[in-house]
Amino acid sequence: MNTQTTTTPSTATAAANMVFQRWNTAKADPMNAAQNNPAVLRTPNAPSAGKGVGTQVVPRMELLLPGEPCSIDMEFINFQVPGVVHPMDHNDESKRNKPKWEHRPAWIAITNTRGEVVLDIFVKYPYVEGVRTIIPRAEGKDFGITQERLDHANGAVPGWKAEQWCTRILRNRPVVVHGGGSDLTAFQLSRPFRGATHVYDTQDEYAYEVDNIESPGLWRLTGKFLNRIIQADGKHSPVEDAIATMELHILKHPYDRDEAAQKWKAVWAPPQRHHSGGYARGRGNHGGGLSRGGAAGGRGGFASARGNQTGGRGSRGNGAMRGSATPRGGLNIGRGNRQHQVNGNGNAQTPNAVARPAVNDQW
């Protein structure tokens, strides 16, 4: 597999002020492959702020061809919710009726079939009173998780955003893990793996192939089949592990990326400005219906009367379409069917209300 260098391809350089939007199908053309599968690996371009060590805190969807397998690896932080205990019929008698510790992502890395980094982030979930957290420790191992690295000031990404990104990245493609039992149960707010076309586990693919071990470690497989050392001195890196996992998988399931790259054209466009799209709250006499969008909301805005009842008749492309504005439901509102969510208070929440990163965010 190619070795990463600090050189970036001309396509990325030309798109310095552009953002990736989508892939369009195209007639197979070697020129497409030259752009989409360059000889020199594309290196991360959005490092963490402050003292963070994450190398790609904005997803790079242009590094993943449609349907291309990706590899994901994580390190975790353990947490315990007050009152949650193991059942009395637990297989391990020592755990019965004892506090149940669970885990969630703390460091996530996703790579493509070339070993290019699509995502490399630390994850910060909100503080909940009473919930205890512990950074996992193991003798002779360093999982790279510290409270400092889980600080937003050092580039840690909010849990809801990290899970949303992972859901989008893993959707409609094969996903490869190693010893993925913990990975599959780590996400707290969504189920990103459900969107994958298939989840492969290299620990299962290589069972009994090294020293007759049923569940061989990644470092052991990498040493034998890839002839290199990972996790040196006990230091774990999800990026290093994800790259090795994918290389092992490709030995079992070859993937011709050059052939696939010929069939697609990347679409780039200038970054869009995202406005809050505010709304005007009125005392309207429609009992909470959504009425014609007013100037206070701007383009795509709308006026919202108090309450959570059914939405009014849509008008001029900016009002709500005919239907119910349920507290948790979504409405197609405004030109281009932009989706606005309605929360439990009956207030509209626009997904792009907060300014999004200016790099590769249109996907």
UniProtKB/TrEMBL annotation:
Residues 279-301 have a biased composition (Gly residues). The keyword Nuclease applies. Gene3D superfamilies: Ribonuclease H-like superfamily/Ribonuclease H (3.30.420.10). Keywords: Exonuclease, Hydrolase, Nuclease. One of its GO terms (cellular component) is nucleus. SUPFAM superfamilies: Ribonuclease H-like (SSF53098). It comes from the Eukaryota. Residues 272-363 are annotated as: Disordered. InterPro entries: REXO1/3/4-like, RNaseH-like_sf, RNaseH_sf. Residues 339-352 have a biased composition (Polar residues). GO terms for molecular function: exonuclease activity; nucleic acid binding. PANTHER family: RNA EXONUCLEASE 4, RNA EXONUCLEASE REXO1 / RECO3 FAMILY MEMBER-RELATED. This is Exonuclease domain-containing protein. It comes from Cercospora beticola.
